[in-house]
Amino acid sequence: LNLGANNCGRTGGVALAMALRQNTTLELLDVSNNPLGDDAIRAFADTFARGRNSTLRHLNLLDCGVMRDGAMALARAIKTPNFRLTGLHLFPILDHYGGFFDGIAGVAGRVVN
After folding, report:
1. Which of 36, 69, 89, 101 makes an SS bond possible with 40, Cβ 3.0 to 4.6 Å?
2. CB 39 within 8 Å of CB 13
3. Can you tell me the distance from the alpha carbon of 45 to that of 51, in angstroms, rounded to the nearest whole number?
């Protein structure tokens, strides 16, 4: 499902993450180029960390306003045994000073393509 560049913000992103908990068929979700922000990213992370979605395999979060806190939530989700994504596209990750944060790979402890 391609929802890229649809001006989906925080509220829409959180709603999508919650809807994924009921998903039984969707395998790919592209929400790239939407200003989701960390609240929505944390909601996605919670969905995956708690094993509430076992169907989705690819998630595209490119250019979604992800900050360090959202990236860290995803990193923690990646480390759980419930994490089932095989493709996670996540860039850029911004720090609170407008720069880039590149520490997610070390925190996650494994690489997700």
Report:
1. 36
2. yes
3. 10
DSSP run (H or E) holding 58: strand 58-60
Answer whether 107's CB lies under 8 Å from 72's CB.
Answer: yes
Whether the CB-CB separation of 37 and 13 falls below 8 Å is answered with yes
Tokens 């944060």 belong to 101
Spatial distance between the Cα atoms of 50 and 86, rounded to a whole number of angstroms: 17
Nearest alpha-carbon partner for 84 in 40, 50, 37, 43: 50
User: DSSP string covering 59-94, please?
Assistant: EE-TTS-EEHHHHHHHHHHHTSTT---SEEE---EE
Structure tokens at 40: 């929505």
* pTM recorded for the entire structure: 0.83
